[in-house]
Amino acid sequence: MHNFYFSNNINTKWFIFFGLILHILASYFTVGYYNADEHYQVIAPLEKLLNIENKLTWEFDYRIRPWLQPYFYFAITKTLSLLHFDNPFVIAFLLRLVSSLIGLVSIVYLYNHIKYKFNIDNNFSKIIIYTFWFYAFLHARTSSENLSISMLIFGIIFFDKFTSKDEPKNKYLLSLLSGTFLGLSMIFRYQVVTSVFFIFLWLLFNRLTFENLKLVIFNSGIIIIILFLGLIFDYFGYGFFNNTYYQYYHANFVSKWFESFGNDPWWYHFKLFIENFFPPINIIILISIIFFWLKEYKSIFTFITLPVIIILSLLSHKELRFLFPVLIFSPFFISYFFSNSSLFFAKNFLMNICVIFNILFFIILFIPATEQVKVYEFLYYNKNSDNKVFYYDSNPYIIDDLEPKLYTSQIPKIKKYEVGNELSNSLLIVRNYRSYQEVSKLNNCKFVYSVYPEFINLNKNWRDRDFNWYIFECK
Fold first, then answer.
1. Are residues 128 and 20 in the same domain?
2. I need a surface site. Which of 48, 128, 209, 281 has the fewest CB within 10 A?
3. Which domain holds residue 430?
4. Residue 10: DSSP 8-state
5. Do 342 and 384 belong to one domain?
6. Which of 62-76, 248-262, 409-423 has the lowest mean pLDDT?
């Protein structure tokens, strides 16, 4: 197995093809969103642009969210409408697919850029990078984190190219491309400004020459132009000129809104990482990251990961997704660790463990990110003008106190079931398993759909978690 892992006898295109299949599958099956911001701060503004009546979050009332990504998805949606695509679930799938393909291309480009530099041109590296479950899942998200990180990766690669002595040609074109992608990355996700700052700091310590200084000034000018273009999209989104960048800064760091979401200890990101990100392989990831930092302390990838983690640990509110600009490089760190360490007798064993657990985590790519969206799908494809829709315990149309109108605007209205309601010719939606048992006893009501297979009810812990949804048809 050792010889197979460290040989390069399989063409890279086959790994890319397998990664493409995983990305398509994740785009199709992981409907909904990983975090509420993915919908209510990106898709909800798209709903507004599509003239779907909805209610935006408070962030839009205070004008701190950008409109570029909603307009990007709006352009795709309007193009689809010319082809007579108006099914919200097909549209959502294609938005996820476009986002996913952008992310996959960024990883392919990154691997080709650094595979020789970091000695990871081998089968193991290609397996763990191109089949990494987290890439397929994250890239299928219509979140600001996803597109921002993809743009950041492109920006880093072009930055590394135009500041390198090994790229004698087209330096201003590379600088232009880098500035464009770095600017876009900051617009999509303002927090990425930290990573971009340390890219420039890396240049100061490692590649500062008069020629590079001119190129960086040009690069910075492009970034400023892109940021200004972002404000133009915000102008159309809000209906008037708005300095969204300043509004965001003032809200979070002057008015201290950021602190209102929680005040976690400095080590809390480490806790989130250990508990929630790819256990038990996250231990190997952690060791690999530290190994890379020690061996490649001058690398641009050290500068955009180590300082970012330190700064994130100083912020009051912490979420695992804040670490995504660092965790995105996890399989590269693992590949570097195993490809550049003499290590010990357990090397093959640990590499096998990484591959096996990565395959086990493929199950995540077939699970809806938001179960309620599967309920909406059922209602959409089984809607009948005569049908009434009731919910028995929890209202599936309300998530985090808001309604995802992209889907619910095209399915029947829903009402709370009350004792005595006429249930003939109706659908009854249930979440709690105890409620499921109660409804099962009602006359003329037949169970017709469940988000997850019924065998999960054999496990008491799963039954009690209330993550499944059941639909009954009542005659």
1. yes
2. 209
3. 371-474
4. S
5. no
6. 248-262
